[in-house]
Specification:
104 residues; mainly alpha; single chain; globular
Length: 104
């Protein structure tokens, strides 16, 4: 009986299920969004190394505004977040190419 009482008093620790490894570019909406966000994070980190924090924040604000406007017709669709993140990533990579051409 004491063992049962002790078991009931122990805190319940939830078991965390392991997330399956995602192979990019992915097949499901979730996987495709994950991969797009991963690519954006990669290009964003590269820009962090080359731009001042103030310039980077201005760049982010500008690209987010441009991408939101470019894909506004899709705003209500489930694909909208992926399109905007992809747009941000492509603009980041274009700037990185420009900076590379300047010897940076």
């Amino acid at each position: 009986m004491k063992a049962l009482v002790l078991l009931l008093l122990l805190p319940v620790v939830p078991v965390k299920a392991e997330e399956p490894e995602i192979q990019c570019p992915g097949h499901t909406t979730h996987e495709i969004r994950f991969c797009a966000a991963q690519k954006w994070e990669e290009s964003n980190q590269a820009l962090k190394k080359q731009l001042t924090p103030v310039t980077l924040e201005k760049w982010k604000a500008a690209t987010q505004e441009v991408c939101a406007a470019a894909y506004a017709p899709y705003r209500q669709g489930t694909i909208y977040p992926q399109m905007v993140v992809g747009c941000d990533d492509r603009l980041n990579r274009a700037l990185l190419e420009e900076l590379k051409g300047l010897g940076r």
